[in-house]
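Bench log. Compound arrived from synthesis this morning; before running ITC I wanted a structural hypothesis for how adenosine-5'-triphosphate sits in the protein. Inputs:
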Amino acid sequence: MKKIFCIGELLIDFIAENQGNDLAKAEVFTKKPGGAPANVACAIAKLGGLSKFIGCVGPGQFGSFLLGVLEDNHVDISLTQRSKSFTTIAFVSIAEDGERDFVFSRGADKKLKYDSTIKKSFQDNMVHFGAATALLGGDLEAAYGRYFFDALTQDAFISFDPNFRGDLWKGDEHIFIKKCMPYIQKAHLSKFSLEEAQLISGKTDLEECCAVLHEIGTKVITITLGGEGTLLSTENSKHTIPSIPVNPVDTTGAGDAFIGCLLQQIANLHNPKEILEDIDLLIGMVKIANKAGALTTTNFGAIPSLPDQEQLQAN
Ligand code: ATP
């Protein structure tokens, strides 16, 4: 089984209670672990995969709480760093339609230092670049770029999720798009939400979105469509793969569960790059990953709702 390195932020989400999408009115917040790459690492490990988290948390109880969550979910934290900066937090509002809004207070996540000793272990393994905050400057962006270079030179299987957060890029969306380009160009697998696919490609029609994204370079594209399932696109074919019907209560983490489950299955192949040539294999994997995404919406919070193998098989 291949190891999957997940690089990026691990933070505390303070979720506003009962105030729709109005953070200004919110008075009560619930503390939850968050950060897309950390969610993905947990999704993989909970399904029995080997995930290692490369990221940085702060000192004190918040940092310890987050490391404890990763450990409880069997994520390898031997590469997770602690800095003197406070643990990053995000205030999150969830509107009635499930749409989320974020206000970030960044601390330790951007202090991640590059560690040149990790490079060798990327060889023949898989690296997932899915940080929402990685392209915003600071040590994290520098480390991210160097780990990306290492993943390329070590011939690792590379997965990319842009995790666009409007709040972080207001007015600078064009910079975000530009910074995503090398990752989309080189990734073996890229996962987009519909909003991200449209923003980055500059197209609204899904066929046209895929054409532009393939032209940039990525071989396999998944565009997650919420309750509608997932569009899987390769240069030769496109398939919309429906999800399973559920009664969603909170969609947080569905995309992370999806990509985590897909990567966990790919990691079981002798050669992960096999999926680039085998569309039937990919379709089967996306069907299962859709289930993981759907099941995650049936409970509150991202990490506690991630399914294990037993739940996945039962549905
Ligand atoms: P995130 O919100 O975590 O950034 P995202 O927007 O990429 O992620 P979604 O499209 O909401 O993620 O969900 C990912 C996958 O989970 C979908 O492709 C689908 O398979 C499944 N899913 C999400 N919502 C539902 C739903 N309401 N019913 C059934 N399946 C769902």
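What the model suggests: The mean pLDDT is 93. The pocket of adenosine-5'-triphosphate is lined by residues 193, 224-227, 229-230, 243, 246, 248, 251, 253-256, 258, 290, 293-294, 297 (CB under 6 Å).
ITC booked for Thursday regardless.
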